[in-house]
Write a structure and sequence with these properties.
367 residues; alpha/beta; TIM Barrel; eight-stranded parallel β-sheet; 12 helices; 8 strands; 11% strand
């Protein structure tokens, strides 16, 4: 793509105002959480550190492609890991791409996956307070996601209620790899709270539930592990649909983040086909599964599909619905999508406004 085209797309983004649904802030160090933890939990963190359900206690299951998952040029000049310096994020991402609203998704450390559930709940609360103090208060363009200890529904509902009063929180964060399929009723209080407070559920790739990423066991390569992020999304969405979550909570909004979207039409078709033959098993799902997905689910673009025939991407989105797609960069990670480069095809003015701004405003209730 020529420099002229890139510059034109940058100017279009600045003029339009982009809503980026997936920006990852990072702690400069674990000590950044200490002001937001009680003395008891400060001692827990300093003495025992983070202990997840993942059997690889001291590291990820697979070495990541680059240090800190991130682009080499995202390490702040002033020091600290990528995503830890607000000023550098403004300079490198928010300003040049015309980010109108950036929605934070905190991945590390994970409060949901802690072996000590009480510490996990305290860690989630600290991360939420940290987002406000360090990111959304000094930068109005940034909005926070409520990190919850999802395996503890009661604690999650309490944390949602505590944070929802602050309008800087625009979604509820949960990762794909929960201990049980996400549609199970043990998680329903979370969905009820999300619906009650008018906040969408942002379901983001990741999590450490202590089980392999693939149904066949631990893969040999990071390549497989990374690809399996898309596989994890599909049974999760089927679970939400077939367990009756969307029927029980018709106002619940769900955004699927960082799992791609090319699989979505085929999954909907397959679910509808099986529902037509086996609907007697799920009388609590009175409508075709695709109708719930079409009504209540949005898909983030990153990592965007790149078919050899570039126009096939538009055909794919036609099947999903142009009003169901929201832009996500995944900044500062190594596979992030530059908003100028994400679409290798020309979009119409209406399609551009929908994907890069208007759909996210609807999904997240942004003004």
């Amino acid at each position: 793509m020529s420099d002229e085209v890139l510059e034109r797309r940058r100017e279009e983004g600045i003029r339009l105002g982009v809503v980026d649904c997936d920006i990852h802030p990072m702690l400069r160090s674990q000590k950044a959480l200490l002001p937001h933890l009680s003395r008891r939990w400060q001692e827990e963190l300093e003495t025992f550190g983070l202990r997840t359900r993942n059997p690889f206690v001291g590291s990820y299951a697979f070495p990541k492609a680059t240090p800190a998952l991130s682009r080499r040029d995202t390490w702040p000049p002033a020091g600290g890991p990528p995503g830890s310096d607000l000023g550098f994020m403004r300079e490198q991402h928010l300003d040049p791409y015309g980010i109108e609203t950036g929605i934070l998704q905190v991945l590390i450390p994970s409060g949901k996956d802690q072996r000590n559930p009480a510490f996990g709940a305290a860690l989630c609360a600290a991360l939420n307070d940290w987002q406000i103090a360090e990111w959304t208060e000094p930068e109005p363009r940034l909005k926070a996601s409520i990190t919850i200890p999802a395996e503890d529904a009661e604690a999650s509902v309490a944390e949602i209620g505590r944070c929802a009063r602050n309008r800087d929180f625009v979604s509820i964060f949960i990762s794909t790899r929960t201990a049980d399929p996400l549609g199970r009723k043990r998680y329903w209080p979370i969905f009820a709270a999300a619906e009650r407070h008018g906040l969408p559920l942002g379901i983001h790739t990741g999590g450490s539930n202590g089980m392999p990423m693939t149904p066949g066991g631990w893969p040999s390569f990071y390549f497989e592990d990374h690809m399996a992020n898309a596989f994890a999304m599909q049974p999760l969405l089927a679970s939400l649909t077939l367990e009756g979550v969307f029927e029980a909570f018709p106002q619940l909004r769900v955004v699927m983040i960082e799992g791609g979207f090319g699989w979505a039409p085929a999954l909907a078709w397959r679910l509808d086909k099986h529902w037509a033959r086996m609907r007697s098993e799920v009388p609590h799902v009175p409508h075709p599964p695709s109708s719930y997905i079409r009504r209540q689910v949005w898909f983030a673009t990153q990592p965007i599909e790149e078919p050899p025939n570039r126009r096939d991407l538009c055909t794919l989105i036609d099947r999903i619905g142009w009003d169901r797609m929201v832009f996500a960069s995944d900044y500062p990670h190594w596979d992030m999508d530059d908003p100028r480069l994400a679409f290798k095809v020309a979009l119409s003015e209406d399609e551009t406004r929908a994907v890069f701004r208007d759909n996210a405003r609807a999904a997240y209730g942004l003004s």
